[in-house]
Design a protein that fits this description.
The chain is of the alpha/beta class and 369 residues long. It folds into three domains: 74 residues, Orthogonal Bundle (434 Repressor (Amino-terminal Domain)); 132 residues, 3-Layer(aba) Sandwich (Rossmann fold); 130 residues, Response regulator (Rossmann fold, 3-Layer(aba) Sandwich), CATH 3.40.50.2300. The protein has 15 helices and eleven strands. Strands 7-6-8-9-10-11 form a six-stranded mixed beta sheet, sandwiched between helices. It starts with a helix and ends in a 16-residue tail after the last strand. The N terminus and C terminus are likely disordered.
Amino acid sequence: MGQVQRLTAQKNPGRGRRSDKPTISDVAALAGVSVSAVSKVVNNRPGISAPTRQRVLDAADKLRWSPSATAVALRGARTKAIGMVAGRSADVLATDPHFSVLISGIESELAPADYGLLLHIVGEEPGAEERAYRRLAEERRVDGVILTESRVGDGRFELLRQLELPAVLVGTPWRDDPVPSVRAGGEQDAGIRAAVDHLAELGHRRIAYVSGPEDRVHTVFRRRIFESALEERGLRPARIVVSDFTADAAVRAVRELLSDAEPERRPTAVLFANDTMAVAGMSEARRLGFEVPRDLSVIGYDDLPIGELVHPRLTTIAQDLTQLGRAAAATMFAILNGSATAEAPPVRPPTLIVRESTAPSRSPRAGRA
């Protein structure tokens, strides 16, 4: 082994030492701009002011730097990869079937086209997602990115335009934006309204809602529809618990909802933001001494496979996550192929699937907590 290492060192005497040849990063640092700005100047792209362009050219001249012919040629080539940046921790994503089903839909479109999905899990540190997009653009590692979890006041669209990185959003944008979005077709509020109608027809008058974070667009959208659907029936929410999308959060929410000592004040039904939360909520309700659905009706959202495997089987609002993923990938291909108005393939609207976790309302008994 030692002989091999010596031979390698002899063949590569300069290995490990930084080359004195200037790089694009050196030019960017001297000019006081980003690497992407230098790239735009080199490729004569728009979006750079005349003074900035001259500063970059002066820095390149001072350092005697010029891009290699190979690098210039590669800039116009496809990477055959689409990026996705997840602003959640790895352990949370590992227990989130919603995300994996969506990815399977995306992959089902990318694989036949010989494209790969480059997934970055960056956690929830402020600025981490933005830095990841900048790296993807500056290093030209992907042809475009698919955005998830539409946010209130989302600033990613403008950033990606500045980076000249094509993007498709899965979900409804907070405000109208040129970035194409993929969402369920038809009446997008149909699922929540159907769930409220179903519970009301079963005699439930104290209906609670356990939502996701308030900085997510679909969280705000669904909560408003929930409140509106109740109001149309002359009802008000028993409780709305703002939570996150994890099982642990659902357990805490159920403890809070069922802790009231007065049975007439406790909700008789709960609608959860996703199926994982609903299943965890049912388990915690049983642990506290409440039977589902006799004492508490439960509805989830997404129609994930887990809903069919638990007892009682979960009533849920189905959305076609696989088709959403396929539509996002198809829309991205349309953009990359030069379509000026890329329209996403249709995705069926959310629908209520009634199973065994909902039943007629009855006066709840005290739990054994």
